[in-house]
Amino acid sequence: MAERTFLVPLDSRPANTDMPERMSASAGIAVDRPPLSVLGSLRRPADIPAVRGWLEESLRAGVRRVILSTDMLAYGGLVASRSPATSLRDAERNLSFVKKLKKKYSDLEIYAFGVIPRDATTAADSESFRRWSEQMRGADTKAAAAARPGRERNFRINMNLIEWAAEGALDFFALGKEDTASGNPNSAEIEALDAAARAAGGDRAAVLTGADELAQIMLARCFLRRARAPLKFFIDCSRKDMEIVPLYEPGPIGENIRMQIMCAGGVEADSAADADAVLLPAVSRGAEDLFLAQLRGGRAAPDEVPHALLEKIGRHARAGRAVGLIDALRINGSSPALVEALLNKKLFFRLAGYAGWNTASNSSGTVVAQTALAAAGAREVPLGSARANNRAVARARFMLDRLAEDYVFSAFARGELARRLESPMDMKYTEDVRLALNERMELRFGKTLKRAFAGGAAKVYAGGARALSADVATVRIHACLPWKRLFEARIDLDVRLRMIDG
Fold first, then answer.
1. Would you say 323 and 280 are in contact if contact means Cβ atoms under 8 Å apart?
2. Which domain holds residue 62?
3. Distance in angstroms (rounded) separating the CA atoms of residues 194 and 186
């Protein structure tokens, strides 16, 4: 029977709900969460009493491992956390029960995560998108001043949570910095929180870059905590590329990957030979925001195939290491040239982790967590056992999700749909739009699967130097826009994967 971990997510979007659930199966974990109906949406905060009630009922039923979004419990989700509508006093009251949970349930493990607010407004329509663009360029100082009361409230709440972690009321508290504007206008705030986290101890709290991937990182941490030996990661990347500061982020990509490894419960190895897992960041200076290009009716410039990177993937996979590929060649979508090369060379499913779905930190956090769960999950069960095969199938399913969401939707179908709409940011999500989305997804995804499984099968990562084959028998795709905007899609694949000895 799968272990149960309960998740209070950041909001109802697929990155915060579907991704942790689906990723967890690769390590034999079952993740439960509140129903989507109480988790809010773009314009509606979550039902905080209902979420808290769900959590308390779960704890009474005997759950002993929880992952908590403090922004969900304090404000009603990520978007609500950017609004000053909730007072400091109310936010403190909403969270007060969390501090008492370990006294009530002595063996409870609590992995909490919070978000330092982004430096710009929520882009919900054309006008707010215009303001978002100005604020991200650092050109709208009035908006920054107006946001100050909310930022100060969140700062106090996050400081309190770091103190709770230091005192042992939380097993760990990860605090992520959401999108950073040009000039990093809130750097003093980040530095103060980081200093407090360091004082609490690296085994208690940490500040890093990102938001939507934090639940995934906490999922990896609670799994690796029970491992017999630490999981060792090696980052195979040049010093020059490690120092690249990605778009919308305050610091170098290499520093953040190291923080994500630490927060996930892993350790860094000195060499690939000493590592259980290898992370390969694919990065470039001046990476393009694919979503912005699509909103403006354009297409992304063609990218080049990084042949040296492909050679590294093959070499590490043959050596028996779990390989995680961070696709940050673009922002908000996969690099088509990279994914197509991986498919052509039969390397995509050999990966233990892949992501290219939003910012560089979002993608790297997903890959760190996914690779950690894959490597640790594979080494604790005998190869060829039913449990091992089930976990290999779950990993292959998650990789199919990444093909559907990061590559087919983000790199292609979303742009095709945007060009069809008169005003993509003010779109009305009608049945015609949904049908058009599914038509484009099915057509492109079908072609992608034919390439991925040319010859009838593809080798998939199954732990160490071993691999199994997966044959996709039938696939159906169901896609919708859960927040009635083009930025993200909820994609469900109806697929039967058959494991073949090989």
1. yes
2. 1-226
3. 13
Task: Quote the number of domains for the chain.
Answer: 2
Contact 257, 235 (CB under 8 A): yes
- Measure Cα distances from 278 to 27, 160, 234, 257, 373 in Å: 18, 36, 5, 12, 13
Radius of gyration of the chain (CA): 21
What pLDDT, in 10s, does the model give residues 284-334?
A: 998 999 999 999 887 777 788 888 999 999 999 989 899 999 999 999 999
- Last residue of one domain, picked from the residues 175, 192, 226: 226
Paired tokens of 339 = 């994914």
Strand 65-69 versus strand 3-8 pairing type: parallel
**Residue 50: count of CB within 10 angstroms of its CB:** 14
Query: For residue 415, what are its two tokens?
Result: 């742009």
CA 438 from chain centre, in angstroms, equals 23
Q: Which two tokens stand for residue 187?
A: 């750097």
Overall residue count recorded for the chain in this entry = 502
Three-class SS state of 159: helix
List the 458-461 sheet strands across, edge first: 458-461, 467-480, 490-500
What is the C-alpha to C-alpha distance for residues 109 and 245, in angstroms, rounded to an integer?
34
Q: How confident is the model at residue 144 (pLDDT cuts 50, 70, 90)?
A: low
The strand pair at 458-461 and 172-177 is best described as: unpaired
What sign results for the dihedral spanned by CA atoms 80, 83, 85, 91?
Answer: positive
Is residue 185, in this structure, part of any structural domain at all?
yes
Which of these, 445, 450, 452, 453, lies nearest to 413 by C-alpha position? 445
Taking the model in full, what pTM does it have? Answer: 0.96
